[in-house]
Amino acid sequence: MNVYDIIPRPWEITLTDGYYVPDGEGLYIKIKDTMREDEYSLEISEKGVKIKAGGEQGIFYAKKTLELLSSEGKMQNCVIKDKPRFAYRGFMIDSVRHMQTVEEIKTYIEAAALLKFNYFHWHLTDDQGWRIETEKYPLLNMVGSYRKSSDFGSVHTGEQYGGFYTKDEIRDIVRFCRERFITVVPEFELPGHCSAAIASYPYLSCTGEQIEVETRQGVYRNILCPSKETTFEFIRGVLDEITELFPGEYVHIGGDEAPKDRWKECPHCRSKLEELGLRDFEQLQGFLTNRAALYLESKGKTVIVWNESLKSGMLRKKTVVQNWMDKDKLCAPWVNGGGKMIVSDFYHYYLDYPYGMTPLNKTLSFEPVIKGIKPECESGVIGVEAPIWTEYIDNFEHMCYMCFPRLAAVAQTAWSHEKPKADDFAARCKSLCGVLENIGVSPASYEEWNPSPLKRAGQVVKFFAGNINGDDVKNFLGINKKKAKEQ
Ligand code: ACM
Ligand code: ZN
After folding, report:
1. Ligand 2 centre and the CA of 276: distance in Å?
2. pLDDT computed for residue 484 by the predictor
3. Active-site annotation, residues
4. Residues near 177 by Cβ (< 8 Å), separated by ≥ 6?
């Protein structure tokens, strides 16, 4: 591969004369104390390849660059100096709505490692299933891991669907990631998106009613009751098992899309609100989030939450906010106040939406240091993450088609300051596709990446006609965004 085709583009490239044909020898590696752990340089000459790096992680990235460079045999001699723009370069997989096999997840991780991602956010609990093996709460697996049918718009099956990843499988994936300098961030959603947990243990909700694991996409009203000690016992118990399985710094505890209808009707929640002197039910969510966060902090963890958690106005300062749709414009003030943020903008980084809505160019054009952040606070943006939600994605081939090459555009922004032109970047992606195919990932074909306006309109109509959901339509058209602006 041409050195200028490498994604993400290295920071500094100097071409020198001649070519080097790798022969399995002539690789020299040196650790340099003056470099950062994840920083490296590469010197390719007739004599061979010299890697200098701050640590093992830098050596790994140097080798990934070499893997791309040497994908077609001989390499142009050059000197590369390289280091990442953002410390957090994430990808998320939703294994709830549809599961992937361990081998499929590993294949995706392999492709992400090639693009120098370093965090795998694994969405493992939601309304439609519980995907972590647990010993303390066996019903989570016996009841919560299975749904009667699946009814996600165009993806429909009348058969029972489910399962969970065993602890051994999870450890295997964590180990596989560690070998690639990727940390796994498990997500246990609180207090919303908890139907699978409540179906398993109805005492967790305000009403205590028996409900079923959900079979459709959406936002559900039955959420955890934050006013009973038994709820916190459960949260702590699950977190104990999760932290035992996932040794990384971060644990994601959700916080998005938690309607307060049940809390408003619940006598326990109403008296809790009064007892704590809280302003409103958003603050009751803040109370729950902060208790879970404190528990995790006592175990040396840092908590990540979706941006709705900012509505309480009382989030612990150490918490990292993941900005996916900031309708209330709370993210920039959070960062300006010293808070940390990961950016997963719905309109640019949600890879489950068709190319017609989110073409490759659009993903590439996104700037994660969003408007409103003061220059002196920019370091609060610790990175970016691209999620793939799987309501409408029930097989790995489809998942790869949706994610590649758009994930490469996210990698470019995550690592590099360089902002490529659309055509130039598409050409680089073409070079990358062959390497991805060798890993077992089949990207969308070139014609799909940046469809014409007419094709885009057709895809949008087809997508919403097949998976109709009023809120999604409004979100995408920016109606909710506009509303938030007007308020
Ligand atoms: C989300 O997409 N509800 C985080
Ligand atoms: Zn309640």
Report:
1. 14
2. 40
3. 126, 193, 257
4. 109, 120, 183, 184
